[in-house]
Structure formats: structure tokens, C-alpha cells
Amino acid sequence: MILLFVILMLAIAVDASPADSPPSERLLDVSTSWTGNSFPGGTRQSKWVQDFIFALAVNPAGRCFTISHWDEAHREAGIYENGDVIGNCEKAAGEAVAVNATHAFAPQGKGVRRYTFEGAPTGTFFDLGYSPRSIAASAEVLAATDPANDRVEIYRISDASRLHRFEVNDPGAVALAPNGDLWMVTPIARQGFDGRYWVADPKSPPRIVRYSKEGKREFEAIDGYPDWIPASLAFDHQGRLVVGDNGPRRQVHFFDVSEEPNLVRSFGERGGIGAGKPGVVTPTKFWGITGAATDAKGNLYVSMYEQGSILRAFTRKGKLLWEVMALNFVDMNDADPASDGEHVYGKQEHYVMDYTKPAGKQGTFHGYSLDSVKYPEDPRLWLTNKDHHIASPLMRRLNGGKLYMYATGMYASHFVVYRYEGEIAVPSVMFAKEQWKSEATPGWPPNQPAEGGWIWRDADGDGRFDADEYRQPEDRKAASGDWGWWVDSKGDVWQTLSSPARLRRFPLQGFDRHGNPVYTWESAQVMPAPAPFTSLKRVEYFPETDTIYLSGYTAEQPYDPSHWKEMGRVLARYDGWAKGNRTAKWTTLLNWNSGPREVYATPHSMSVAGDYVFVTHFHRGGPIVNRVYRATTGEPVGIFKPGPEINGVTGDVDIPYGIRAFRRRNGEYLIFQEDDRYAKVVLYRWTPKE
């Protein structure tokens, strides 16, 4: 009897050993990769390319200095050279950056700090009383624009004292000529609260005007093109004025200004990303130009930001030397269902994948789907916190195999549909839970109803929001909803509703002559939430098996408004949903820890693929943990975490649809996960061994 007891105790000890931990915490054999950033990030000491490159300056040796108003990991003033990350100008952030032969200059608080070329701050600080919109520097002076007061100020470099101040209507980019003259764009303005785009009034096109260093306006001016947007100015090694034009031409122009200003040449394919095969990425196609400058050898550097930061370097003859990029900020990926994971899409990126390549090198940036010139009312350009409101693409093949993208964002306030024409995603349909209001983008979308939510469809095929293209329910309040959005493989749209908890389904009614999917309020079906749910937050329905997966809260696991983005505490599967079954096949209580920061982890996003349900968590500390559940039973299978390929760290999953899984034909699973901190999408690869 004693011997039996000893054997039993040994067996229990073996079962409890770390090598054979409970299945719910079994670490799965998963490899890690990523798309969207030239570098993996992961720690403050690691390398990554920043978000929001608003401006560019280049020193004589070819070292590039950039500026952002925000980078999630706080590289707001990144330094780059020879395709590598050199560092950051410490504590700098804003919209402007400049260099002279010996130092860099960047905004810090309400002034400008002088930095070494390694990014170290010096003691020189120009106390402007504002954060400048543009700056330029020479050996003797610093020029800064004050947008709030429509003026330009000139400061002495040696002692940071102000020399001159003069008024200019809506000053834009500035550059100091070798002879000390100041060239400036006017009138031009920044669009929106975050100021990421320069915009011009078509009734008063911007000019580039020459001023003396004392502020006297000279006669020479460059009118350029009626529709141009001169977003940046610099002088090259030959004394020519270099203009980054983010208008429809999307080119870099070189002007000889030694006498009467004269256009010498323009670099880049005219029309940029819209040229040739629209949307297909090539080195000389530009979009969202924010900076253009040269080094002492005449090499040209071009920075871009529209959705994703890109910095490219070219020889004098126009050959690409190198590029670095940060494409996936508050973004997710999904695989084209018609491919075997070989074509992967973000909200504006198209990657062609080669899984034989090393981590971080598997995705080739093939297509950019946003054409801001042809479709200027694209929601990706206008929604406040533009990166946040469209962030989670769901790719579908409908209408005879054509490609469509359905997407929502961090706050699930909209569900936007795009139809692909080649590589360009054209605004097609938009569901809005309520009228869109924003001080940052007043007047967008144009022509929307005066109150209440709506469905818009691009009835005439031009991608614009025309007055006769909106539809509303009879009860304006009926348009509102909760956090759940989904589109199934047949094109039906699903939405969770609250107060009380319900589901709404918009059956696809067909396609109009432009290929837009048709949805109507009249055909929508509303159904109560099944037991045990009192609140629904996520939904995924699969018509092939008539199976629905729901997550949310129950009477025993109630909703807590302090966790407003989470997917809920309970996950359930229902079979035979369309046949009327409302009894769950299984329910699972999800791992939930809202305690101290070091252990904080609440379930945030889910994705069902093949035989498994994948759940990722919102964390306030430590590495992201992803959990896998068996789709047939709801039983936990194991966990996986970011690997050494990305230094074992990702940023928060900040969006409600921050994980997306896809099963390949060989049984391998591709699991994409948002990483907003280091401007990329993490890719996990897992082949189950069970």
C-alpha cells in the first residue's frame, strides 16, 4: 500500500513538471517573421523605421534626418544612412527638420534644438514660443515659420538671437540659398489636426517666392503648375532649388535660380503611384512626398508619407541606392483567399510572399492600393487618426472571383468596403453607425445625411460620396451598433448590436454595374443574442459549415466599461445557425487578467481558421501572449509568443481585429498580429504536430 502511494505521488509530480505543463500553457513550436518594416524593432536599442516622416534634411555626407509628430516607440526624429538606422535626435518631435554643414536642427517643445550629426543635443536652443512648421539653416542663420501668426523669423546661429521677423500668407516649406536668400512656398497649409499633408487652395495656387535675408520680397517667383503642391524645398550641390511636388505629378523638380528661375529637370514617373500600372510599386514612383534633398555628391533622397513612411536614396543618374520603410502602422494583414498565402494585403499594402527567405525578408512590397489623386475622398485619407479608423482588412473573393477588401478600425465605428481595380482599392461601400463628425476634417464625407447612421454605395463608380448615394433606415437610431463586424465568404455582412444584445446580418443582394456589393436596410435581419450572452463583441460566421463563433459577456462574466475594446470573457461556437440552432456546441472561459501591469492581459482579438481559434491579448507589460483553442471542442491547445527574430517583443495589439489566421494547403498556419509599436505586422508560422 505504501509502495502504491509512493508511485502515485511520483506520477503526480511528473505530470506537474515544467516539461509537461498544462495544455493551456503549452508553448507551441512557432517561428516568427514580419512584414512592413525594414527592421524588427523590439527594444529601445534595436532598429526600426519610424512612423510619420513629415520632413527630410540631408547633410553633405548623405546622412538623412527626419521628423515626426509621433512614433509609437518614440523615434520621432530618426537618422538614417546607407540604408541603416543610425539613431534619433533626442526629444525632438514636430513637423520640421534642417541641417547645415555642421549640425542638425529639429523642434523641441516650443522651439528648435541644435543637434550633432549623431543626434546628441547641444546647448543651443532657439526659443521661438511655438513649434515651427518649416525650418532651414545655413552656417549663419536659422529660418523658421510661425503658422499661427503667418510670419517667418530669422535667428542668428551663434547666439540664437532673433534677427528679423516678417509676415507671409500661409508660409510653407523654406530653403536658404547659398547666397543667403530665403525661398519659400506661399500660400499653403497643413491638413487636419495631425498636419500630415500639405494642401493647396485651387483658387490660389502656391508659388515659391524669393526673399532677402532681411525679409524683403524679391521679384523672382516660381509659379510651377496650377495643381502642384510644393511640399519641400532644398538646395542641391550645384545651387539648384529642389522641389518635392506632392501634387498630381508626384515628382521632384530641379530649378536653376541663378537668374530667371528655370525648370532644369523633373525626376520620377509623372503621376507617381498612379502611373503605368497604377498601384504597382517601382523605385521611381512616388506618392505622399514629404521631402527631397541631395548630398554633396548629388545623390538624391526622397521621403514619403501618406500611409506608411518610406525613405529612398538615388544616384545622380536615378538608380536606387537603398530604401527603408515603415508601412504597417496600426494595421493588419490578411491573405488573399484565392492564393495559398502567397499574396498578403494590408489596408493599403500588397505583399508577394516567399516563405523560403529569412525572417523579415519574406514579403516583397508589390502594390500600394491608395490613389489619393484619382480618389481624393477615400476614407483612408480623411478619417480622424486616419491610421486608426481603417486598420483591419478582411480579403474576400466575390462576384466571379474579383478581389474585395472589407475593413474596420480601432473603434469599429465604420465598416468600409473596397473593390480592387488592378492594384488600386476603390472606395465602394461604407457602413457608418452614426453621422461622422470631426473638427479635424469638417465637411467629410461630403453630402452625408444631417443625422444618424447610413450606408453609402458608389453608385456612379467615381469613388466619391455623392448626395444621392446614401441610404438610411427609417429609424435613424437603428444604424448604431457595437464592436463586432464580419463579412463571410459569401459576402454577407454581420454586425453585433447592443442594448439589448443582438446580431444583425446584411445579406449580399448582388452587385451593381460597377462591381459594388449591394446591401440594404430593408433586407437586414436582426436576431437576439443566444444564451448565455448578455453582450456580444465579436462574430465570425462560416456558411460552408453553418457555424458561428461569438464572444462577449454573460451574466456570470459581466461587461466592465473600463475594458471597452476587449472581445469579452467568453467564447462560444454554435452549429446549424442558419437552421435555427441557438444552443452552443461549447463555451470557453477566456484567460483574463486585469491586475498589475506586469501580468495584465485581456483577450482582445480572435480569428478562426481551419481547426483552431486564435486569440491575442491586450497587454500593459511583458510580451504579447497568443492562445490557441481547438475549434471542435473549445479546449485550449497552447500558447505562442514573439520569437528572437523580433527580439521577443511586440507592441500592444491596439485594434479589435489585431489577429488574422490563414491555413495553407500544406497544413501550415499563417497567423498575423498587429504590432503598432514598431510599425509592422508580425507573422507567426505554425504547423500542428498533433
Structure description:
By secondary structure, the chain is mostly beta strands. It is 3% helix and 40% strand. The protein is built from 3 helices and 52 strands. Strands 32-33-34-35-36-37 form a 6-stranded antiparallel sheet, with no helix packed on it. A 4-stranded antiparallel sheet has the order 1-52-51-50, with no helix packed on it. A 4-stranded antiparallel sheet has the order 2-3-4-5, with no helix packed on it. A hairpin with a 3-residue loop joins strand 32 and strand 33. The radius of gyration is 27 Å and the shape is globular.
Offer a few descriptive terms:
disordered N terminus, mainly beta, 690 residues, six-stranded antiparallel sheet, 52 strands, four-stranded antiparallel sheet, globular
Beta-strand portion reads 35-45%
N→C terminal distance: 37 Å
> Which regions have little confidence, pLDDT < 50, spanning 5+ residues?
1-24
**Main β-sheet: number of strands, strand sense, barrel status?**
6 strands, antiparallel
| Number of separate helices | 3
SSE layout:
Layout: H1 2-15, E1 30-35, E2 55-58, E3 64-67, E4 78-81, E5 84-88, E6 98-99, E7 104-107, E8 112-115, E9 121-126, E10 135-137, E11 141-146, E12 151-156, E13 162-167, E14 174-176, E15 182-186, E16 189-191, E17 197-199, E18 207-211, E19 217-222, E20 230-235, E21 241-245, E22 251-256, E23 262-267, E24 289-294, E25 300-305, E26 309-314, E27 320-326, E28 334-335, E29 343-345, E30 349-353, E31 363-368, H2 379-382, H3 386-389, E32 392-398, E33 402-408, E34 414-421, E35 424-432, E36 454-457, E37 470-471, E38 485-487, E39 493-497, E40 502-506, E41 525-528, E42 533-542, E43 547-554, E44 570-575, E45 586-589, E46 601-609, E47 612-619, E48 626-630, E49 636-640, E50 659-663, E51 669-675, E52 680-686
Antiparallel strand pairs: 1-52, 2-3, 3-4, 4-5, 6-7, 7-8, 8-9, 10-11, 11-12, 12-13, 14-15, 15-18, 16-17, 18-19, 20-21, 21-22, 22-23, 24-25, 25-26, 26-27, 28-29, 29-30, 30-31, 32-33, 33-34, 34-35, 35-36, 36-37, 38-39, 39-40, 40-41, 42-43, 43-44, 44-45, 46-47, 47-48, 48-49, 50-51, 51-52
